[in-house]
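Sample pair:
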Amino acid sequence: ELDDTMRYQLKAVLQFLQEKELIETLVALECETGLKYVDGDLPVAGVLQSSLDMYRRLGSDVKEEASDSKVTEEALQALSDGVCCTGSCETIPGVAPFSANVTAVKWAASVGEHLALVATADRKLRL
């Protein structure tokens, strides 16, 4: 059972899909949630669109703050070594290539070496 907040949020998404004429997506979401959108379900039109517009406007105000943090980030990057992958490596004897797409990488520094834990789409981890 959906609470009132979740129901309102889903109705806002359904309204957005109908306004943008994304009917197949609208029908799929209605089937998944069991909710049907009818004009007038929400008090105003464009609930989700106006929220997205407001978020975008707030984001433009944050850009000025982001430039300050960018300077700090660039200074930190200059202090530490980085790793850049530009392509696949040559096959190393005894090491099999990944069996699926890489979905996550976590770097860890150990004494004198760097390690990477890699997760792949087939739900396997490799160190």
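The mean pLDDT is 76.
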